[in-house]
Amino acid sequence: MRQCCVMRLLSCLLVFLLLLFFFSTVAATPRSPGSGSNTYLTKDELWFSQTLDHYSPFDHRNFQQRYYEFLDYFRIPDGPVFLVICGEYSCNGIRNDYISVLAKKFGAAVVSLEHRYYGKSSPFKSLKTENLRYLSSKQALFDLAVFRQNYQDSLNAKLNRTKTDNLWFVFGVSYPGALSAWFRLKFPHLTCGSLASSAVVLAVYNFTEFDQQIGESAGAECKAALQETTRLVEQKLTTHGKALKASFNAADLEIDGDFLYFLADAAVTAIQYGNPDILCKPLVEAKKDGKDLVDAYAKFVKEFYSGTEGVSAQSYNQKSLKNTAITEDSSDRLWWFQVCTEVAYFQVAPSNGSIRSSKVDTRYHLDLCKNVFGEGIFPDVDATNIYYGGTKIAGSKIIFTNGSQDPWRRASKQISSPDMPSYTITCHNCGHGTDIRGCPQSPFNIEGNEKNCTSPDAVHKVRQKIIEHMDLWLSQCQDPGKTCI
Predict the structure, then answer these.
(1) How many helices (DSSP H) and strands (DSSP E) are in the chain?
(2) Does residue 244 register a pLDDT over 80?
(3) Which of 123, 272, 322, 364 has its C-alpha lying 20 to 30 A from 337's C-alpha?
(4) Residues annotated catalytic, as ranges
């Protein structure tokens, strides 16, 4: 008995020394200048050798995939690991949003993997259509699974242990929100649960509900002003098209549909990301005062959409989308490929009460897919929804959250169930990813601060529900075979 106690004491002492070494290693790791900032927890790049085609056992090609880790809050050795999914953009670090608050609360390590093809994680040197065949949500989910296993193994190696898993929890907003839900669905043994914020889990061919929600979120007066603006733009487009496009700094958009999509997205972005007043106040005032609505809208587009948000009209130019070189603007081409092959989300004008131009229709989207990527490209949304389940996803331990003003919530799971609770955060400027990012989302809110939401209490209540679910699911996931530490 005495010998057993001595052995246990020595064992615990060994683990303690390993932990001390691990802590000192983390603390001594040099951070490059600017690697952490108010906006990011870290921007230090790490690399992982990823399988190119997870569906071909005979294809042994790999590519380098970028990822990040943040260990400052990690409760060594048994703290959870938070996997933050990056999506259809260049992933430049781990953002300092509400997930950082949760990481601090739960003592979690935070890791984030860049989506294949985006940013610096491109498998090929050219983005020609034939090279994009491995760009899909299915391949991306396997990337996450393989990375999760590899990172756990490397963590075990650092802690000199084997066959031990930390508790993992997955997070994502928007398309990454869908990936978060789908990851829990397809790999339930690899995560204790997921937060699917503004998760667009339903692939939609003709997404007319998107425009309808923009009208509801804008309010009656603003919707009427937007509709009249669209009508006036369509008139001027037929008579003074070049001058009209130039007034929006969009003279290079030769295809009218590209130009009209650009204008529609400007209004969408203001409402979707919690800035409805920046759009609506000047437009409603211009309508009441009898001023030129097109001029008022052009001012909004140039100052807010192109200025504050930094969106270039060129990102809507099909000539630019056909560019196969890897550049800072490659994300637009890559996301359109996923739209044109998997999920569609075609934001077409509804037959009645439309805000956007009726010229932004199904034919416009299909022509874009063909023009940019060639023949034979078509979004099989039925196959996507059959594979994942759409809003009838048959998963468990997934939290769905949506902002009341967000047009994307029409493609998310909004009906709650015991295994998959769903919450809608209701306020005037509660948009896309409000639970994680706060409101509005420009400028960036440190730690996703909710104080600028018109109803901070609404955000706070949902965040408390998130914590309750996470606490329960992580405890249910706890490994019963723990050691003395």
Answers:
(1) 16, 12
(2) yes
(3) 272
(4) 174, 406, 432
